[in-house]
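#help-structures

NK: newbie question. if I give both the sequence and a SMILES, will the prediction place the ligand too? trying with magnesium ion
OV: yes, paste both and it writes out the complex. here, I ran yours:
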Amino acid sequence: MVAKYKKDGISSGAVDCGLADPAVSGTSGSDGGNGAAAPSRATGLASSFPSIAPGIDVDSVSEAELKENGFRSTRRTKLICTIGPASCGFEQLEALAMAGMNVARLNMCHGTREWHRGVIKSVRQLNEMKGYSVALMIDTEGSEIHMGDLGGVTSQKAEDGEEWTFSVRKFDGALPEGTLQVNYEGFAEDVMAGDELVVDGGMVRFEVVDKIGPDVKCRCIDPGLLLPRANVTFWRNGRLVRERNAMLPTISSKDWLDIDFGISEGVDFIAISFVKTADVIKHLKSYIASRSTNRQIGVFAKIESCDSLKNLEDIIRVADGAMVARGDLGAQIPLEQVPSVQREIVTLCRQLNKPVIVASQLLESMIEYPTPTRAEVADVSEAVRQRADALMLSGESAMGQFPLKALSVLRTVSLRIERWCREQKRHEMMRLRELSPPSSDRQSAERVSEQICNSASHMANNLGVDAIFVYTRDGHMASLLSRCRPDCPIFAFTDTTAVRRRLNLQWGLIPFRLDLSTDMEVNILRTFSLLKARGMMNSGDLVIAVSDMLQSIQIRKIP
Ligand SMILES: Nc1ncnc2c1ncn2[C@@H]1O[C@H](COP(=O)(O)OP(=O)(O)O)[C@@H](O)[C@H]1O
Ligand SMILES: C=C(OP(=O)(O)O)C(=O)O
Ligand SMILES: [K+]
Ligand SMILES: [Mg+2]
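OV: that's the protein plus ligand as structure tokens.
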């Protein structure tokens, strides 16, 4: 395994924390059962995962982290990797899971459904065999304007002053020299000479010189790398032109087919591109509910357009989470506004108790280079300091040269900044508004749970306890605790693997699957003895335990 990290340019010494030798860790393996099955070793994977005491499902990475470094060392910020040609092999996925990937994202803009199905199968297999709970997210294409496939090449350079043709014509095979395809039929009608075309949020810029039938002649005014299916916006007199765009549906017919695919494949999250209003999220949620009765799929609203900013609070209230999709967002609002908008979205999501992902260009230079820029590290640090739930890699892990190394940078920077914030008490103390409406019944389970979690977190910080344990069937109580961002990690015990995977995207939660008893005392004693037996906690550790089955707060010392 170490050799694998070396291949990607990471010596094991560079990992300051948490990545232990898998040979010392175990897993109970079974995904969905009661954890009694031994992991299968039928494939050609590292044969280094002995089955330890059954009864509890935990992944080998969390287990190793806890064994080596104790509670304080666990990473609170979750990490998402977009999977693409650079990361879709089984061994590559395994290495990413080992290196801390919490969620695998599939961007439906790219690749065939067959390809996506293969990745989903591999991630499932890894979870089953190794006890991971890597969640799966699909991300819709959306119907904004984008370029075509570049006729099979992976990228093309546009140089300053070069002439390029944007065409809505369909070409079979290779494109004529200097030609780019656009997916939007009305493109040539809509643009005007003098307009500015912004590719991929500013990676490359062109000026429209002339229109000849379906072809739009442009001159490159800001050189850069063109990638397949890159997003295109056009600007006139310094303003985004979006009259036609605004008429396009948020969820296109292709998106609906992709959503059906996601539902039938049983993915955990669906992220919707270019959300404009809350209605589209409501509609999708009821569609999902009618199609998949036995399981929940979290719907994430991608905030990446002017419209989504106008309706931000309404959208976030109805969604299950949000993504600050800075790539397209930065193409729709002035770049200098992106940092403050990011912060506002992160804060709002926390207030409304919705997980939030910060995405795009976090480590963009690592697509090509093995080390990040200092500015990128500062950007990652800021997102961690804002205490976003998750950070996402896009091209870095999908098609870059150093997917594993990029993930390792996210991990080490997160760990370091989290520790620094705790030591220096540098985190923002946010006054959390009450989630339940003031009119609601004082004794409603909702309100009581919220108060229990607020108080438990407060106590945990004041007493300096080692961990909070939460026993939760649907995961809600765990997310209420996560919302408080306590200093110690939160161990979330739930009885279904699907809930466990879903919780894996939320800040500070270490999700376990365990058969829950209705008797809280039985659960507590069982988890204490199982975790102690596996060396994940020690006698004398101080824990606060809460549950949504019995509304109480207990302070317990591990016997
Ligand atoms: N499934 C895939 N197949 C091929 N290439 C992919 C895939 N997913 C992502 N990529 C590549 O990674 C790049 C970055 O991914 P992402 O940010 O998700 O997409 P986009 O750039 O289209 O917004 C893409 O432009 C594409 O080149
Ligand atoms: C994450 C984003 O969306 P996509 O990669 O699908 O364009 C973004 O625009 O930042
Ligand atoms: K997308
Ligand atoms: Mg986008």
